[in-house]
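Methods — Computational structure assignment.
A single polypeptide chain was analysed. Its primary sequence is given first, followed by the predicted tertiary structure written as structure tokens.
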Amino acid sequence: MAASVIAITNQKGGVGKTTTAAALLASLHRRGARVLGVDLDPQGSLGFSLGLDIERCLTVYEVFRGEVEPQQAIAHTDSSDILPSNILLSGAELEFNRPGREFLLKTALSKVEQNYDYIIIDTPPALNLLTVNAYVAAHSLIIPMAPEVLSLLGVSQIKETIEGVREYYNPGLQVLGILLNRFSARFNLNREVLEMASQIAAQLDTVVFETKIRTSVTAAEAPAHGQSVVDYAPSSNPARDFEALCDQVAGARFPRDGKGGAR
């Protein structure tokens, strides 16, 4: 079976995209899946948060330039393989201006996707060429958001980009759902944002995930230890919530065994 390619996206920063990508990679790995993380953010947060020295390794930038094959740039961590990124990718919009540039990532992944069950793409906080590349390569999207009004605005602006990619490049692109991060039902604003997020989800022909990711200091601590929160603090609320999200996303192919996720 071909790899399922999922992009984690929101043009607003600070909504938990990298945390979500890292947690899904770790949770899928614990269930026995073969997983590849792709970092399309020039900040390189996904690779860094999983323990890579992103300034001393080959990256997706060299792959896009045709200097190395994707397999040569893939690094290995305890929880997944990673195609990393760093600041060199920040000039992509200007540097990669040739016809077909929207397919750079899809072409690269076609050379390695047979080696994986899931490919998780972490996208930059912008609707630019890199984000479009992620949408063209992906089968589906997960849209994380923080429980705040400005985060909602970012989600609503994604709709136009999704529709454009569907029309010109990837008609089968689906939105799996909107994911609420740092959520607490005790706060009125969180409940109000949930209601508004449901309205936006309807416009995107999707849903708000039943699973909400609760807030915890462990999610912020984990990257400093080179781990996802699922591996760093598996008993924490966010780790349990991400395992529940993984049930919704991939439970049919890779179910938990009832012992915390590992198979």
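Note: Residues 149-168 form the longest helix (20 residues).
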